[in-house]
Amino acid sequence: MKFLRLYKNDQVFKIALGIAIIVIGYIASVFYSKMQKLDDSVELIATSNQTQLELEKLLSIISNYETYLRSYIITKDEAYLKNRFLDRGEIERNFSRLNKLTAHNPIMVRDIDSLKVMFDTRFAIFRETLTVARIKNADKQALNDLLLKGTYLTNKMREHVYRTINDEAKKLKVLNESHQFELKDSMISAFLLVILSLLILLLSFNRMNSDINELQKANDELKFLNHSFNNAEKVANFGHWKLNLKTNTYIFSDNFYRLLGVEPQSFEATPENVSKFMHSEDFDYAMKVHLESLQTLEPTSVMIRYTLPNGDLKYINSVGSFMQNSKGEQVKVGVHYDLTEQYKKNIELEDNNRELQAINEELESFNNIVSHDLQEPLRKIQMFISRLEEKEGSVLSEQGKDYFAKIRAAANRMQSLMIDLVNYTRTIKGGRTFVKTNLNSLLEQILHELALNIEDKNAQVTVGNLPTIKAIPFQIEQLFINLITNSLKYSKEDVQPKIKIAAQKITETEIVHGKEMTEKRHHKIIVSDNGIGFRQEYADKIFVLFQRLETDSKYSGTGLGLAICKKIVENHNGCIAVKSKPGKGSEFSIYFPKNN
Amino acid sequence: MITHKDPIHILLADDDEDDRNFFSEALAELRMTNKVTLFKDGKELMDYLERPDIRMPHILFLDLNMPGKTGFDCLREIRTNPRFKELSIAIYSTSSAEKDIEETFVGGANIYIKKPNDFSKLKKVIKDVVNINWQFHSSGLNKETFFFSI
Description:
The complex is a heterodimer of chains A (596) and B (150).
Chain A: H1 2-8, H2 10-75, H3 79-82, H4 88-101, H5 106-134, H6 140-236, E1 238-244, E2 249-252, H7 254-259, H8 271-275, H9 280-296, E3 300-307, E4 313-324, E5 330-338, H10 340-373, H11 375-392, H12 398-428, E6 435-438, H13 439-449, H14 451-457, E7 460-463, E8 468-471, H15 473-489, E9 498-504, E10 510-512, E11 515-517, E12 522-529, H16 561-571, E13 575-581, E14 585-593
Parallel strand pairs in A: 7-9
Antiparallel strand pairs in A: 1-2, 1-5, 3-4, 4-5, 6-8, 9-12, 10-11, 12-14, 13-14
Chain B: E1 9-13, H1 17-30, E2 35-39, H2 42-49, E3 59-62, H3 71-79, E4 88-93, H4 98-107, E5 111-114, H5 119-131, H6 134-139, H7 143-146, E6 147-148
Parallel strand pairs in B: 1-2, 1-3, 3-4, 4-5, 5-6
C-alpha cells in the first residue's frame, strides 16, 4: 500500500525516473569504456601474434642461409649462393615491420635492437666463412672454427628469439585472460543495462497507462456531470447564463434556449437577442437592473415575462450574482427559473381564496338571517302563543289546549334548532384567536349558566382538576355546554344523573380516528354520565350533523349538539371519541394537543 | 336621579309595532305608575330627546335594528351629549350576537336585554329593569352583568 502510494505520487515518480536515467547513463559510459578496452586488447593480441610471426620468419631466413652456405662448402656450386643469399633488403623489411609492431613496447624495442646487433654479427660471420670457403685449399681448421662460431651465434639468436616469443606469449596469455574477463564484465554490464532499461520502460508505460486511464475516467465523469446538469436544468425548468465582464461575451445553457421555446444554441448569445422574447412592459426594467448591476456588482433578481414563439407567456425569475473565474476576471452568473406553473397556481389559489371569501360572506349573511331575521317572526309567534294562552286559555277546550301546547313545543324546537345552527356556523368560521384558557374557571362559569337545567334534573356534576389550554374560549364553552346538556337530556328518569368531568392520564398510546394520542403531546378530558347510553356501533354516527339516535319525543334534540362538539374539537386540532353501553351511560373523551 | 316622588319616565324606541304593543301591554299589566313614551324609529326618538323643553326621562329601551337611524346611532349620539348623562339605556334587541353586545357595552349602554319569547318573561324583565338601582348597577358594571339574563 505504501509503495502504491509512492507510486501514485507524481514527485516521487519523477525523482525515481531521474535517478534511473543517471544510472543508465553511468552504466552506458562504463559499458563504452569496457568496449574500448576490449578493442585495445584485441589489437594488442593481434600485434603480439604478428610480432611472433615476424620473429620466426627471421629465424627461418637465418636457417636457410646456413643451409645454403653448407651446401656451397660441400659442393662448391655457386648456384646456392645466388638465390637471395644474404639479401639484406628482406631482413631490413622484416625489421622495419617488427619496429612498427613493437613501437609501443620499449622492452620489445630493446630486444629487437639487440637481435639486430646479433643479426649484424651473424651476417659478418657468414661473409667471413664464405670468403674462407672460396679460397682453394682453405684452412679447414679456420673454416671449422668459423662454422662453429656461426652455429653458436645462430643458436644464441634462436634462444633470444624464443625468449622474446615466450615473453610475448606470457604477456599474451595475461592479456587474453584479462580480455576474457573484460568480455564477461561487459556482457554483465550490457545485460544489466538492458534489464534496467526494460524495467524503467515498463514502469513508465504502466504509470502512463494508469495516468491515461485516470484522465479518461475524469473525462468520463466530467461528461456525465455535464450531462446530468443539463438534464437537471431540463427537469427543474431552469437555465443559466454567464457574462464575462472583461470580454463582454455571453454564454447561454441549452435549457436557457428551451425555456424561450427555441432549439438550444439557435441564436447568438447576446442580450439583444434575448430581449426580443421579453414582454415589452418588462424590457426596460429588466435591462436597467442588469446594466446597473454591472456597475455595482450587486446580485440581482427580477421577474420577467417572456413571449414564446408559439405565443405562450412565460413567467421567469432571473437571478444573477458576480464571481471571478480562474483567470480572475469578473463574471456574472445568472439562473432563469420558470415560475409559470407556480404563478398560474397562485392565480388559481387567489381565485379560490376570493371564492371562499365570498362563500364565507354568504355564510355570514345566512348566519344573520338565521340569528335575527328568522328568529324575529318566530319570537312573535311565541309571544302571541303566550298571550293567547294567558288571556284566552280558559275558554279553550281540552283539545284546543293540547293543540296549543303542541304549537308551543314546535315553536320552541324551531328556536333551539336555529340557535344550534347559528352556533354550528359560528364554529365553521375561521379567524378566531387562541388564548390561554383555564378550563376549571371556564367550567365554573358554565355550571353557573346551566344551574337551572342541572337543578331541574336534580343532577350531580363533579369537576376534577383540569389543565389550562390554548383555546378559543367561546367555542370551548359551547363544547362543554353541549356535552353537559346532552348528558342531562339523555339521563335516566328514575336515577339521579351523575356527570363527571375530569382530566385523565394517557397511560399508553391511544389511536383515535387514526391519530396517535400520547401523554407527552395530548391532554385527555373525560365527560362521563350514567345516562341511557347507546350501542357502541353508533359511536361515530352521533357526531354527524342532524343524526339522532333517540326519536322518542321526550328527548328533544336538534341533532346538532354533538356535531358542533366535533367541529369545535377539530378546530382545536383535537379529537373526540365516545364509549357507551345502553343502560350504563356514556363516556366522551376529548383530546387537545399540548403545544398549540 | 330617580326619586320616589317622580313617576319613572320610560322611553321605548322600536320599529316593530307588535313589540311596542307587547311592551305597553306588559307595563299596563304591571300596574306601575310610570309614564311611557313610544317611538317608531331612531329619528323620532332623537328629535324628541333634543327638544329643549322636555324633562329628562329615566330609562330608554332601545332596539338596535331600526330603519334609518339605528339603535347604534342613537346610542352614540346620546352618549356623546353630556345632557343625557343621567339617562339609563337598556338595549332591547332580538339579537344576542356577541358583536352587538360588545359594541353596545363599549358604546356606553347600561344593560342588554334579549327580547323574550314569552309574555310573562317580558313583564318580569321590565319589572326588574325598572326596579334596578341604577347607580349600584352602573358602578359594578362589567360584561357579565351587562347582559341581562332572565
